[in-house]
Write a structure and sequence with these properties.
2 copies of one chain form a homodimer. By secondary structure, chain A is mainly α. Helices cover about 65% and strands about 5% of the residues of chain A. Chain A folds into 2 domains: about 180 residues, Transcription Regulator spoIIAA (2-Layer Sandwich), CATH 3.30.750.24; about 425 residues, no CATH class. In chain A, strand 3 and strand 4 form a beta hairpin. The longest helix of chain A has 30 residues.
Chain lengths: ~650, ~650
């Protein structure tokens, strides 16, 4: 039985508490919320325009674009000494890694070195991070070769393959610069933390598998990157005669590098040992091969190696080619992956030193360095995590260490490349392999599992997608699951029954706060969804009606007389949502239950007024807080019972 | 300058207010929230299992499936009289409409009549709506012909076309029944109200354009449904000699039908006039053509018309055909559109009479009627809005009126079909045209525009998609925009600065409530998003930091000392969200600002504890309400200033 007739409620409510009525009036008479157009323009302005940087002289403007003009004037000799040492350490790690990553990208080795010359110099002029080490990185190299070799085979037509790589790099740089200029940095956010952890882990294993070719000295290998094809290719080639010398050489130097790293970790002062080990391995193994003429006995060597300055590649960009659309697509994916890595690296070291990076400015700097790179025979460069850590440990002070590194690489390109002719490929493979463990973060994967099972699904989705499918499939799986998660939360929101916390006026979820008590005759339900829309309105309506049935079954002493809908969480409502509320109201009325609405938010109350829903339920049934509704109803009940 | 050192805050907070601390403890010690698996099983159970209907005898079970067993026992002669009259009225409207819709579906006219026999009879046994009029409808007929004629041309190979229609109908019925059995009714919700309004409007215009063929007596017409192709075809055929007699005949009867409808609307008692007008038009025009032999002078007539009982079509279903996949796809789309219409019709009339329909049971009924229909030469049937309105006005009491209608149609199939040989096609076109205005709801489109501009975008997206593209494109556009809207709200949530309402302890958005006042030194920010995740975490972080800058610029007297993050709206957080909070905390600390968290919800506080974020900011900085934080800070400030 409903405790009170509806008319009574309406009539007696007004005089009860003028303050409560006043609060409700504040709510009902709140000003018009900003219109959609207003919101859109504000949002675009906030997105596109820089935050604080308004106006200023031409000097300020130039300093904004080229931060070096600002800090360069205070640059001191003591800083240069540190930067010089860090730059040399960096170069010794960078030269072998660059050659290795170039082979991973299926390019001739000198392109790796070229990429360690021009982009770091451009970044030094435009970038704001002080520690980041710019150059080729493993994941982007893999990404490029995995996607481009589907269009042009690097072994059949290496010239066109290389030209396409430059074109992709140009597009990647252009996208990166545009993202920065239009402040679209949020696009990088669409790869969630969990997706990156999974993707990097999968990519590391795929890269490692690719190195089996070099390490085992296999001639014929698959162009697919998935684990099944690669293992299949390895098993097949092991049936043919193969030369174990490559494997022995590669493994011994891999063990050497890993031991130096272990020592470097134990004793922080010996950080230069693991940084120097790769270069030392290259020199030593090259000497061994040269002196023993091992290349005649089956050891595979680099052979092709063109030295000299970066040649221009302006005329190699293929904008007229039929593959230009695909190149742009690959460029976009590379741009996002490269930015994700660079910004993650830059931010983590900036926060270690306690300064802040402007993501959008960084994107412009990285974009320009890749555009210029694509015109000077470089492929896509970004910030390398392992080398940035070395740079940081080596005590770099500013981005000058990148300049020192670039110049050192340039010098070695001019003078030392002839020596690299005899470098065994197995050594390059072992250098790449030694850099991979840093990409696999099992610890973080475990943390993600602990915190959020669906996030973990994103993580392993990306991981297995990369491993058994391809890099694009891995990324696609991660993005689809991530957005499906958002939609799932929206279409299946929860509702909670609220009770009053003891000795307070606070109403809370009775399952979360077992000490909260329900109020007899009043059912308070909070809709836990940011939007009440077509996708969840019917579901929420059914859930609420179900709660009424449950409550009546549970508390047989007094039936539900008032349903309080706490709308605090609902930021937006659409026409389907309003229709569902109207249906809910009708159905409650037919069961003799009053509907009261508590704390509808700005847009919601505005739309409910426009749709005449407020008129339908009566303006006196809209309250600012749940407390007010309960208070009003309890007083009414008392006076109602008193008059009985 | 920060007003108080951080240590001070930590030490002095505890003894301030034991009650406040106790409330925070309730929050921090709230029990483990239900795990993901638990939530999933609960959600599946709630979705799949019926709500109240648990157990019962075999009779109850049968009554659940065949509601006729329940109400049939109390069925009275007086009710039958009403149902009989309503059924006859319905049949008189249904016969001409069915023939017309069959031609719209590019089937021979008898199939429309067959569809008005078997499905209504099955529905009468299984359905719970009392008013719905079952049979072929315009939109589904259009949908079928538009999609199936892309696979098989109905003029070149009518036999295979018809067989494919039955196969599609079988799939549509199966999907509908499965949706109902697995309680997947929410799938129908994915077409939002706005999308349906736009889609129906577009479909009505497309159907109208298709009728130009019949009305103008054109021989060669396009198979495309978009407005450009149709108008192009019409203009081209008008260049050829054409016979205006068809047009004159069709238009005169169209005007007659529209006049009767106008009269029927003015005088509710004459509702039977518009209902009878189509049948009267068919009879009169057929007689005219028969007597004047007008078919020899260019009037196009129906000609093919096979009478008799519904033949079996069991052996016509093509499960082995290569098109079976496409048939299933078309079946799925038809199933959803047909269900949307049937449930909308059923619900609106049920709420007029004050009873409730179980959407899932209705789906099973409609699904079975279409499965049986597909075996007895029927194409996809559903509830027709226009005929249901006629049925309601004619005073139907139960679904028996559908039975009367079906039997009447059956009798006319057996005895009267020879007479329909001479029916002019232009009349069928004018009958379809006369039913279209009911599908275009300009008023509702205007309401949607007023309420929600983005919803209106969905509406016109569907409208123009159907008009200029095809029915599938229209649906796709509507669904994509609808879900993009949900994602957009999630990735660009708002944050609000809160102030205290005068003479209360309530904290509200200061833009919505201009009377609310900010508290000096404390910045209270509420995150208006249901989830703090990868897609919005960085955005929210930047917004909050921007608010701090703004606040410090605005209030130069006292800098922000404490930032209160009101998390009441945030129902869920992922690893990216937690990382963003950690970054926010670090950045605030570096600016000498305290971070306090108010009212983190169940899952959120649990994850913040797991991720050790609570330990990082200190458990004493987590509060149940904003009021508590402000209270704690103000007291601290007073004692702090006192000791200075």
């Amino acid at each position: 039985m409903s405790t009170l007739p509806a008319d009574n409620f309406t009539v007696e409510l007004q005089p009860l508490d003028t303050h409560r009525a006043e609060k409700a009036k504040w709510l009902l008479n709140s000003p018009e919320p900003p219109s959609l157009w207003h919101q859109i323009t504000i949002s675009i302005r906030q997105t596109v325009l820089p935050l604080g940087n308004t106006g200023g002289t031409a000097v300020c403007f130039l300093q904004g674009i080229f931060p070096i003009l600002k800090w360069g004037r205070n640059y001191k000799a003591a800083q240069f000494k540190n930067d010089f040492m860090a730059g040399l350490t960096l170069a010794s790690l960078c030269i072998p890694q660059s050659i290795g990553y170039a082979t991973l990208a299926k390019l001739e080795p000198q392109y790796g070195l070229y990429t360690s010359v021009v982009p770091p110099l451009i970044y030094a002029l435009m970038g704001s991070s002080r520690e980041i080490a710019i150059g080729p990185v493993a994941v982007v190299s893999l990404l490029l070769s995995a996607m481009i070799q589907k269009i042009v085979d690097p072994f059949v037509d290496p010239t066109n393959y290389t030209r396409l790589v430059f074109t992709v790099t140009f597009f990647a740089g252009t996208f990166q610069a545009l993202f920065g200029l239009f402040r679209l940095g949020f696009l990088v956010d669409f790869l969630s933390h969990a997706a990156i952890v999974g993707f990097m882990g999968g990519a590391a294993i795929v890269i490692g598998l690719q190195q089996l070719k070099g390490l085992l000295g296999i001639n014929y290998f698959t162009t697919n990157t998935d684990i099944v094809s690669v293992l299949d290719a390895v098993v097949k080639s092991l049936h043919n005669p193969w030369n174990p010398l490559n494997f022995v050489l590669g493994c011994s130097f891999l063990i050497f590098i890993l031991i130096t790293r272990f020592i470097g970790r134990r004793n922080r002062k010996l950080f230069w040992l693991p940084a120097m080990a790769p270069l030392f391995s290259v020199i030593l193994s090259t000497l061994i091969v040269y002196l023993t003429k091992a290349d005649k006995h089956g050891i595979k060597i680099v052979k092709h190696f063109k030295g000299g300055l970066n040649p221009s590649s302006v005329h190699q960009l293929q904008f007229g080619s039929p593959h230009v659309g695909e190149a742009a697509k690959i460029g976009l994916i590379c741009a996002i992956i490269a930015l994700t890595e660079a910004i993650a690296v830059g931010r983590s070291f900036a926060s270690l030193k306690g300064y802040q990076l402007d993501g959008n400015k960084e994107m412009v700097a990285i974009g320009f360095m890749n555009i210029v790179g694509s015109l000077t025979s470089c492929y896509t460069a970004t910030g390398s995590f392992s080398r940035t850590a070395v740079n940081f440990s080596a005590g770099c002070e500013t981005v000058v260490s990148n300049m020192v590194m670039a110049i050192t690489v340039l010098i070695s390109l001019v003078f030392l490349t002839r020596l690299l002719y005899y470098t065994p490929i197995a050594i390059l493979a072992s250098i790449i392999l030694s850099a991979l463990p840093g990409l696999i973060d099992l610890n973080e994967a475990y943390n993600i599992w602990k915190l959020d099972k669906l996030d973990f699904l994103v993580c392993i989705g990306a991981f297995f997608g990369v491993l058994f499918g391809s890099v694009e499939i891995g990324l696609l799986i991660a993005i689809v699951i991530s957005f499906a998660k958002i939609i799932l939360h929206s279409i299946r929101p929860s509702t909670e029954v609220q009770g009053k916390l003891p000795a307070t006026d606070i109403f809370c979820d009775i399952t979360q706060f077992p000490m909260a008590t329900k109020i007899s005759g009043i059912l308070i339900i909070r809709v836990n969804s940011g939007t009440l829309c077509f996708a969840n309105a019917n579901f929420i309506k059914e859930r609420i009606l179900k709660s009424v049935i449950d409550e009546n079954e549970e508390n047989t002493r007094e039936r539900v007389g008032v349903l309080v809908l706490d709308m605090s969480n609902v930021m937006n409502i659409d026409t389907s949502g309003i229709i569902a509320l109207e249906e809910l109201h009708k159905k409650l009325i037919s069961q003799g239950i009053e509907l009261a609405v508590a704390n509808p938010r700005w847009t919601v109350i505005n739309k409910l007024k426009l749709a005449k829903f407020v008129d339908k339920i009566g303006a006196e049934r809209v309250f600012l807080t749940v407390e007010d509704v309960v208070d009003a109803f309890l007083r009414l009940k008392m006076t109602g019972l008193g008059s009985c």
